[in-house]
UniProtKB/TrEMBL annotation:
Keywords for this protein: DNA-binding, Transcription, Transcription regulation
SMART domains assigned to the protein according to its UniProt record, in alphabetical order: HTH_LACI
PROSITE patterns: HTH_LACI_2
CDD domains membership: HTH_LacI, PBP1_LacI_sugar_binding-like
Record bears the keyword Membrane: no
The name this protein goes by in its record: LacI family DNA-binding transcriptional regulator
Signal peptide positions on this chain: none
Domain of life the protein comes from: Bacteria
Species in which this protein is naturally found: Myceligenerans pegani
Pfam families (UniProt xref): LacI (PF00356), Peripla_BP_3 (PF13377)
SUPFAM superfamilies: lambda repressor-like DNA-binding domains, Periplasmic binding protein-like I
All residue ranges annotated as the HTH lacI-type domain in the record: 8-62
Single GO molecular function: DNA binding
Length: 335
């Protein structure tokens, strides 16, 4: 090969690897469309030649922005963190940047940052969006858009369907002898919150059990602690919480109130992001945050791939049984 002046270029890598320029381009944009052996070979050659793909230059040439945007309601929530890392890993595999915005669970801030990102990104992911369906459709007309954990007609979505897993937990609790449950909600604007409450309520009614719906929360650890007194006052023997953060806070609040889990109150969470850090281990619904995040990014980066086969793709959740559930105490049963 002739001596080069300056950094290696795409054609230099193609010549050295014995492949076409388009193949080299795909290795750094859509590697999943090539065989693993080809991707490895081309990347090794590129590394040897010290070739670095210039995503900004590619964006100028193709007219396609080099970044995608991800908008989340609360970046401190461990579920969002796992989802973000998975989406970032998928975008990095295609040498595409990921711009992240936190909305503090505000529909107005969400709309503003989404519109800003839409002007500079090649696509957007809205995680559990709080804005109206009409605003979401407006955004979808401006930029390729994927929703996570919400369904809006006409807009592609990837969401966790936890209804069956929640039904299974209600069945199990009833089988253990529980007859009076509580649901500890998350934010009122959350689509997932409404889906979970409905699934739990319908299953409890089918068993003739009573469901007490507590006051909505912002789904923080402190909210969980604060809900302990309402749980005690409600006289319930089991609580299903909107997510693990709330559930873990509730367990701490019950401990401070002199109540034990699961001796006095059984607790079930959702997401499986903190469950193994609690004592006792928290029974929960595994929401597969990593898979949801990866598939949402995939939908934007490879629109002809796995998610294209359906506008809304449901990822079915799983029950994870740990030590935070048990039969109700004899004093509850006798009363």
């Amino acid at each position: 090969m002739t001596e080069r002046n300056g950094p290696a270029k795409l054609k230099d890598v193609a010549e050295a690897a014995g492949v076409s320029i388009s193949t080299v381009s795909r290795v750094f944009s859509n590697p999943e469309r090539l065989s693993p052996a080809t991707v490895q070979h081309v990347r090794e050659v590129a590394q040897r030649l010290r070739y670095a793909p210039n995503v900004v230059a590619r964006a100028l040439i193709t007219g396609v922005a080099a970044n995608i945007g991800l908008v989340v309601p609360d970046i401190t929530n461990p579920y969002m963190t796992r989802l973000l890392k998975a989406a970032q890993g998928r975008s990095r595999a295609s040498n595409v940047g990921l711009l992240v915005a936190d909305t503090d669970d505000s529909a107005e801030i969400e709309r503003q940052v989404a519109e800003q990102l839409a002007r500079q990104a090649r696509g957007l992911i809205l995680c559990a969006p709080r804005m109206s369906a009409s605003h979401i459709r407006d955004l979808a007309s401006m930029v390729p858009l994927v929703i996570i954990n919400r369904v809006v007609d006409g807009v592609p979505a990837v969401y966790t369907d936890s209804r069956q897993a929640l039904r299974e937990f209600v069945d199990e609790l009833v089988g253990l002898g529980h007859r009076r449950f509580a649901y500890l909600p998350g934010p009122t604007r959350s689509w997932a919150n409404r889906q979970r409450q409905q699934a739990i309520g319908q299953r409890a009614a089918r068993h003739g059990a009573e469901l007490v719906v507590l006051e909505p929360t912002a789904a923080t650890y402190e909210d969980g602690i604060g809900a302990a007194s309402a749980v005690a006052d409600a006289g319930v023997t089991a609580v299903l919480a909107f997510d693990d953060v709330l559930a873990s806070g509730l367990m701490e609040g019950l401990r401070r109130a002199g109540l034990t889990v699961p001796g006095d109150v059984s607790v079930v969470g959702h997401d499986d992001v903190l469950a193994e850090l609690t004592r006792p281990g928290l029974a929960t619904v595994r929401a597969q945050a990593e898979r949801v995040g990866r598939l949402a990014a995939e939908r934007l980066l490879d629109p002809d791939g796995e998610v294209e086969r359906t506008e809304s793709m449901a990822i079915h959740a799983e029950t994870v049984r740990r030590d935070s559930i048990a039969p109700p105490s004899t004093r509850h049963v006798s009363s």
